[in-house]
Amino acid sequence: MNHLRIRLHTSLLGGRSYTRPPILGVLGHVDHGKTTLIDSLRKTNNVSLEAGGITQKNSIFQHTIPETNYKFTIVDTPGHAAFSRMRATGSSLTDAAILVVDAKEGVKQQTRECIRLLRANNIPLVVALNKMDLPNADPDMACEMLFDEGIETVPVGGNIPAVPISALSGEGLPSLMSAVKQVTNRMDLTADDRQHGMEGIVFDIQTSPSGILLMTVLVRRGQIRKGDRVIYNPERDALVRDILSVDGKPIQVGLPGMPVVINGLQSFDGSGSVGSYIYSVKSSRGREQRSVTQKKISAIKNKLKELETQEVFSEALPYGVTKVSFIICADTTATLETIEQMLKISTHEVSVAVHRKSVKTLTEDDIRVAEGIDAPIILFNVPDLKFPTTAAVLKHDIIYDLATDISNVINEKLPVNYVKKVVGKGKIAEIHGDKKRKVVGVNGISGTMDISQEYRIKRGQFPVWEGRIASLKFKREDILMTSPGTTECGMGFAKKSINDVKVGDVIECVKTVVQERKLIDESFFGSTSAVDVPDGRPTWRHKRKSDSI
Predict the structure, then answer these.
(1) Is-contact 327 355, C-beta < 8 A?
(2) Residue partners of 63: CB distance under 8 A and separation at least 6
(3) Which residues pair with 417 in a beta bridge?
(4) What is the DSSP annotation of 158-194?
(5) DSSP summary character for residue 367
(6) d(CA 235, CA 244)
(7) Statement: the pTM of the whole predicted model exceeds 0.85
(8) Considering the chain, what is the average pLDDT of its residues?
(9) 518: burial class by Cβ within 10 Å (0-12, 13-18, 19+)?
């Protein structure tokens, strides 16, 4: 499926353009100092804010080079959900990246993964050769290892900057940021500076003790001001009451490339979460102007609905991990929360997500979304759907039964696993052969010998040969497989296919079969089931053997 990119028509937002700060990602192998580098850059700008009674440490902040007042917006990547979702659209969240490499260890597995990610998104980079304060640091070795991965740094004759630093002490950080500036100076960072609207990415959502919802947003296009209306999912829009910089200072306007904190939004229900797009439009007072504004809001909400039916919001997961999405409808909020807790499953093979949720009823739009993303619909203690659907429907009123269905859905999504199964076995009793062929006599057969399957010869516990046989005989007659009860047969091998076989070796007929996968079962969720719900909250009892599954 071609991923759909969000590009609202200019007539919806209108505007001009200006040069924005470059957006910089920081990547690297675990323990190579990425977090320490980010913390050191944060300390330079004191980006640890306290706003609305809540202390935040954002995964996005701004760094300024003091001498030139040159600003960068720095994103802790690639683990951030916003980074993953931007990758899913085929676009890139960052303009450039710092690849952090330990100067004493060089390239590691996650370094290679970061390199593949940067290449896939065509992102320019600067290498930070970290831990230069250690006595065994070897930046030349690290650059040579990077060269083997196709990263040609300046020290080995390439054009990619490689700057020795100590993220712990701060040594070399000015040189590193100067190198990044040289790379980003060559870019066209012109952005739409629209007077009446913003497109942004949600980076963080927190609630203060007083109940104020604080949302950290990276402004991608346009501008956002106090008093604007923001649209952050297909059903919600709200008035922006305050805008703060990420260091907690009140500001009048958020411009492209800036991370800002906004409040005044309604309680967050999970739709349009971290990594989602967010939009704003200018509020209007006159009746005619309000009508125009409402049309803009409706157009944006329709765009967000359209995006939800695409795979743009599919999380970019590690290779080999399968994502399974569900849409839930339950009788009460308490039950809904219980089912959500059940679905918080993440293993090395599968990641489970709740795409949409609702109490009492689902809309036709919810059902179409389920069909579009192949998400099973969970109906718990609610009536049947009002609309026909091709999506799988799991309808239950007992949690234990639902757990069984959920485990079956997840297990069916697992990749197929093939195993080799011994279906026949015998002992080599005699060996004959010439220059072209080798023939062995086999007796003491158990199971079945089949000419179409693979064979393995073992001496003691160790295999000495694996392959296919050229012929299978019983009493000098060619056969395709031995009959039940047959205890002896003859086998022919091509001379070149077998070199080492001795009387007394065991020969096995091996068949490749599909192994039934069962990553989880109902016991994974705990042996409980729901009974009466007199007050709107599920009560629980242990499952008895007589309960049906």
Answers:
(1) yes
(2) 41, 44, 45, 71, 72, 74, 177
(3) 515
(4) -SB-EEE-BTTTTBTHHHHHHHHHHHHHTS--EEEE-
(5) H
(6) 25
(7) no
(8) 76
(9) exposed
What φ, ψ does residue 160 adopt, rounded to 5°? Answer: -90, 120
Q: What is the dihedral of CA 250, 252, 258, 259, to 10 degrees?
A: 40
Tell me how crowded residue 532 is: count the other CB atoms within 10 A of its CB: 8
pLDDT tens, position by position, 279-300: 777 755 444 455 555 666 666 6
Sheet arrangement for strand 259-263: 236-239, 229-233, 277-281, 197-207, 213-222, 259-263, 242-245
pLDDT in tens, 453-479: 999 999 988 888 888 898 999 988 999
Own/partner contacts of 263-267, CB < 8 Å, gap of 24 or more, are 263/52, 263/212, 263/213, 263/214, 263/215, 264/213, 264/238, 264/239, 264/240, 265/213, 265/215, 265/230, 265/232, 265/236, 265/238, 266/213, 266/236, 266/238, 267/213
By CB atoms closer than 10 A (0-12, 13-18, 19+), residue 314 is middle
388-413 CB burial, b ≥16 within 10 A, e <16: eeebbbbbbbbbbbbbbbbbebbeeb
Q: Tell me how far apart the alpha carbons of residues 7 and 312 are, in angstroms, rounded to a whole number.
A: 13
10 contacts: CB under 8 Å, gap ≥ 6 = none
Residue 375 tokens read as: 């998400």
Residues 6 or more apart in contact with residue 155 via CB below 8 angstroms? 139, 140, 143, 162
Mean pLDDT lowest among 53-62, 101-110, 422-431, 461-470: 53-62
CB 183 within 8 A of CB 72: no
Triad 295, 220, 269: Cα angle to 5°: 65
Asked if residue 283 lies in contact with residue 229, where contact means CB atoms within 8 angstroms, the answer is yes
Residue pair 160/154 in contact (Cβ under 8 Å)? The answer is: yes
Enclosing H/E stretch for 396? strand 393-396
Distance CA 218, CA 122 (A): 21
